[in-house]
Amino acid sequence: MQKKNDILDIKTDNIKLHKNKRLRLWEAFIPIIVLVILLAYNVYIYKDDATSGPNQFALIFAGVVAAVIGFIKNISYSDMLEAVVDNVKSTGSAIFILLMVGALAGTWLISGIIPTMIFYGLKILNPTFFLAAALVICCIISLATGSSWTTTATIGIALMGIGKALGFPLGMIAGAVLSGAYFGDKMSPLSDTTNLAPAMAGTDVFTHVKYMAYTTIPTIIITLIIFLVLGFQHEAAELQDNFALINSIQNTFNITPLLFIVPIVVIVLIVRKAKPLTALFIGTILAGIFAVIFQPEIIMKVAESDTFNFNSAYKGVMNAMTNSIYIPSGNAILDENELFSSGGMSGMLSTIWLILCAMFFGGIMQEIGALQKISDSILKIAKSTFGLFASTTFTCIFFNGTASDQYLAIVVPGKMYQKAFKDKGLAPENLSRTLEDSGTVTSILFPWNTGGAYQSKTLGVGTGEYVYYAFFNLISPIMTLIFAYFNIKIRKLTSK
């Protein structure tokens, strides 16, 4: 089926569910085992640099192993290549959004937008309640925009800067930002996944949102409590001298509330259903104009020019959009943390490389029927109602870790389990809720998934650093299983 509206334009009719009886279960697992071994060894050898090339090759190598199995099973090269191409096509918008986020981050830095957000954040936000405040702010923005990616690319970057200045661990800050961002991604009717999940399950979006609130509200409350506790445990002695930090920011940039016009425009555009790519592009151009108006000295530094004229202004803005830049503040804390630095569009290339390699692996695994074989085997042992919920949850997480794409982790399990839920007499909103509780939110837990790769690069934090603090994303699939096990709010078809 194909779902299409102003918010969502995702083609799902090209996603095939294979019934490849020729493939044995142990054969389906071979490429996954190879991939896991290579990824684990890469992390052991390269640590945080594993995503700078080694993991990309691991995905390619595991994909080739899958292709060899496909050849043995008489699956044609052209069919496997077509599956890879289709997978890559599905990530086209994500790749361009990544590039635009890089450009936006650069222009928001040199224009003073991010420094201004950090400046006022340090003045307003109480360090003890910072993590909880970051969570709530991201919840509100993501609910309004319906986009976790837009939330982290805008307010998320600023909150990372504030948290770093306050001395919080990067992973902890990112965990709060991502928890809030994915709350809105799940609950907002503007979100693509919030529209996609009910479309796959066979229900409407508003029934889906209402039913999803049963598991999502307790999860976000638990998450809020955890971040409040972590905030109180953050000793006052560990906090940095806010006065010195504020002075350093003010001495480096021209700080003015007028700079908030740009992020407000971006948020309004998203709320009014503008495409994320369009909103980010406009935000980038506006920030470039504001940089010329408000930060001529910064422009000259970035352009490496002694004079401020049209050529230096153009070069400064273009450098910020496309290349790595660093603006020293003279404050040891700010400079050691490289708070005022950006990779531009070029800084996103390693992430795009990772996504393309993940799509190669996922496409071939799907075409040879390996993913379907494993999922079918799981479904066979799901005899009870709880077993069906658990199988759906595991399958969604499994697809996020193997197909490496959040949409596939919703679409394929949604198609697979729709009939099983109906046969059990379960209303379709049970399935749609489970798809979101386990498919949408767990994409960021895998560094090679499009979601994990994007968020890690955007926030400047390794997946291994934030995964322990992304409480909302970790608790959501557990919460849906708890509700299923105790038969809480499990709606039957006959009750409708």
Structure characterization notes:
It contains 24 helices and 4 strands. With 496 residues, the protein is mainly α. The strands form 2 sheets. It has a two-stranded antiparallel ribbon. Helix 9 (192-201) packs across helix 21. It starts with a strand and ends in an 11-residue tail after the last helix.
**Low-confidence stretches at least 5 residues in length (pLDDT < 50)?**
1-11
Spatial shape: globular
Mean pLDDT: 84
Order of helices and strands: EEHHHHHHHHHHHHHHHEHEHHHHHHHH
Features:
two-stranded antiparallel ribbon, disordered N terminus, 24 helices, 496 residues, mainly alpha, 4 strands
Quick summary:
The protein is mainly α. It has helices at 25-46, 54-72, 77-90, 92-110, 113-124, 130-145, 148-166, 170-187, 192-201, 205-233, 242-252, 261-271, 276-294, 296-303, 310-322, 332-336, 349-367, 370-380, 385-402, 408-423, 428-440, 450-459, 463-466, 471-485; strands at 2-4, 9-11, 325-326, 341-342.
